[in-house]
TrEMBL record:
<dbReference type="GO" id="GO:0005524">
    <property type="term" value="F:ATP binding"/>
</dbReference>
<keyword id="KW-0547">Nucleotide-binding</keyword>
<keyword id="KW-0067">ATP-binding</keyword>
<dbReference type="InterPro" id="IPR017871">
    <property type="entry name" value="ABC_transporter-like_CS"/>
</dbReference>
<protein>
    <submittedName>
        <fullName>ABC transporter ATP-binding protein</fullName>
    </submittedName>
</protein>
<dbReference type="Pfam" id="PF00005">
    <property type="entry name" value="ABC_tran"/>
</dbReference>
<dbReference type="InterPro" id="IPR027417">
    <property type="entry name" value="P-loop_NTPase"/>
</dbReference>
<dbReference type="GO" id="GO:0016887">
    <property type="term" value="F:ATP hydrolysis activity"/>
</dbReference>
<feature type="domain" description="ABC transporter">
    <location>
        <begin position="10"/>
        <end position="242"/>
    </location>
</feature>
<dbReference type="InterPro" id="IPR003439">
    <property type="entry name" value="ABC_transporter-like_ATP-bd"/>
</dbReference>
<keyword id="KW-0813">Transport</keyword>
<dbReference type="InterPro" id="IPR003593">
    <property type="entry name" value="AAA+_ATPase"/>
</dbReference>
Length: 265
């Protein structure tokens, strides 16, 4: 059976991205150490998906560099990049009618030669990862007939099957119930890969990430350990919300309680 590869450090250096002349990311810098789990947080439209898409080279930044290990990804052959980095995007759609297992097998393509197709080993690896996300019993179910949360878990299995060193996840828990969300984040926390994930749930980010990066209007507002970053002042400045932040006595991680906004009638 396959082993997941170990992580490689990921370095995002002064990355700038513009669309139609307006800057969406301005000099974003972050270092995710080998095996680290960094959460990217920030309001809607702050640039989280743009950063992840740049890391996966789906977008070419106007400036800056993204380095995996010692290699600038701009210079890596696409196939090699796909063996080192897997991205799980939000709301993946496909027109082709594939089963859950066939979707996971897509993750094996960077490891296959053009004429080879999927081998028995690829199938075993794909089934192993479907099992890991609790979806083995739906291996033969059509992708289109899976629920949003089931599709999200199959996409994660596809990314695991790719056996990357860096895993980039865009809102990996947005369709998941709380049990599956906790399970997914605990799995990626302990997997040994370098993980960078955009997360909206700040309490989940605080519980699982060892490092957070806060984006606000395309700039990095703050970065560091969750207890350094998630202060009432930052939450007010970035999200415009009132909250108190206390360490949870059981997890030792910071936990945020939000207060309802004042609504004028
Ligand atoms: N292809 C594009 N063309 C033009 N503008 C874009 C494009 N992609 C993103 N944007 C804009 O860039 C900004 C950042 O978008 P991005 O999707 O990175 O934000 P986000 O932080 O992931 O948001 P959300 O939390 O809502 O998912 C937004 O204002 C968005 O409208």
């Amino acid at each position: 059976m396959s082993h997941l590869a170990t992580g490689e450090p990921l370095s995002v250096q002064e990355v700038t991205v513009s669309f139609s002349g307006s800057a969406v990311l301005q000099g974003a810098t972050v270092l995710v150490p080998e095996g680290g789990f960094t959460g990217i947080i920030g309001p809607n439209g702050s640039g989280k998906s743009t950063l992840l898409r740049s890391i996966a080279r789906l977008l070419a930044p106007d400036g800056g560099a993204i380095v995996i290990g010692d290699d600038d990804i701009a210079r890596l052959p696409r196939r090699e990049l796909a063996r080192r980095l897997a991205l799980v995007e939000q709301n993946v759609t496909t027109d082709i009618d594939l089963t859950a297992l066939q979707v996971v097998l897509l993750g094996r393509i960077p490891h296959q030669s053009a004429w080879q197709g999927s081998s028995e080993v690829d199938r075993a690896i794909a089934l192993h990862h479907l099992e890991k996300v609790g979806m083995a019993d739906k291996a033969d179910r059509s992708w289109h007939r899976l629920s949003g949360g089931e599709q999200q878990r199959v996409q994660l299995a596809r990314a695991f099957a790719q056996e990357p060193t860096v895993l980039a996840l865009d809102e990996p828990t947005n369709h998941l119930d709380i049990a599956h969300a906790l399970q997914l984040l605990a799995t990626v926390q302990h997997i040994g890969l370098t993980v960078v994930a955009a997360l909206h749930d700040l309490n989940l980010a605080a519980m699982f990430c060892d490092h957070l990066m806060v984006l606000h209007e395309g700039r990095v507002m703050s970065s560091g350990a969750p207890e350094e970053v998630l202060t009432p002042e930052l939450l007010r400045a970035v999200y415009g919300v009132e909250a108190s932040v206390e360490p949870n006595p059981i997890t030792g991680r910071v936990a945020i309680s939000f207060y309802p906004p004042t609504v004028s009638h």
